[in-house]
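Technical appendix A lists one of the benchmark inputs used to test multi-chain prediction within the project. The record comprises four sequence entries:
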Amino acid sequence: MSPRPDRSSEAGQTAPVSQPDANLVKGIHQAVATRLNDDGVRYTNGRRALVEILARARQPLTVEELRALSAAPQSSIYRILAVLEDAELVHRFTNTNSEFARFELAEGLTGHHHHLACANCGTMTDVTLPADVEDHLDRAVTLLAAQQRFVVDEHRLDIIGTCATCADLR
Amino acid sequence: MSPRPDRSSEAGQTAPVSQPDANLVKGIHQAVATRLNDDGVRYTNGRRALVEILARARQPLTVEELRALSAAPQSSIYRILAVLEDAELVHRFTNTNSEFARFELAEGLTGHHHHLACANCGTMTDVTLPADVEDHLDRAVTLLAAQQRFVVDEHRLDIIGTCATCADLR
DNA sequence: ATGAGTGCAAAGGCTTTGCATTAGG
DNA sequence: CCTAATGCAAAGCCTTTGCACTCAT
């Protein structure tokens, strides 16, 4: 009668921090700096370091994963994430599997995308739908919502299944 | 620097338990009974009562909302939900807003649908996309995933915005 | 009778917060 | 200098669990 998936074993493959992509990352830092500055909030080393990690990741990360990559204590990580979330620079959510929270840079910084979520190892990777599909979907969603006088702000699509790595391990 | 939305005030409008729809509900009980029986699990009064509430709701409910509608103690609610989740009769997830968990009957019982999630009051309501849009999306998703050797199991689409009630209150 | 199910209260585990210290402008 | 930011440890809060009791078969 397993109540909830075991959290400790759920990390799956280690969190990837891929190749530099220096220009893109630099641009993100710039945007974050500007935004925080406008908000009268300091862009300190600790905050810059976390943004760097999030910018290089190709996927939303958990606090545990961030901790493994960041040297900052948990409380600081949570606090920095809260600051960035308030500034709408970071998006926080929890996977369908209802494990712990995951964090990613806001779409304003990374562009609109969706997630491939592996039901086995829990990892998520970013994906982008073809523009025409996205348009089609967007129009349908707006129309549908309007019927209920619901004003659409955004949509989030998660694709759940089994990732290649987990499939290979079987 | 609001870290997380305040949980206590988030209930929003009270959880709706709409008109009977007796036949549909009866069918759901039937399906649940069969499934649990196959699993060698008893369909007790407490469990039946919870399923009844979920079946009548037009939306995923939190434990707090279930509690308000159910008379059973929290621990039993959580335990019953865990049993139903294990039997794949209930789906558990947490809203983008990262509040507490929400529960709904599995799509096997209710049919495939998506959610209109109000960013203000936190309530969610079920919606269905036109079949052609759903098809278009489904094909694109499968294709996209295949490129990464990701095997799609299902997809979940949440539409975030402001519900009519909250819009009126402004 | 006998094991599954239920209730209560206590424990767990991710997340938040108070307070003293450090660092940024 | 002076306020914002950080670190540590303690507290919070949703959720889970141990144990005794009850109910269904």
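Chain B is about 45% helix and 20% strand. The helical segments of chain B are 22-38, 45-56, 63-70, 74-86, 107-110, 131-147, 164-168. Comparable benchmark entries are summarised in Table A2.
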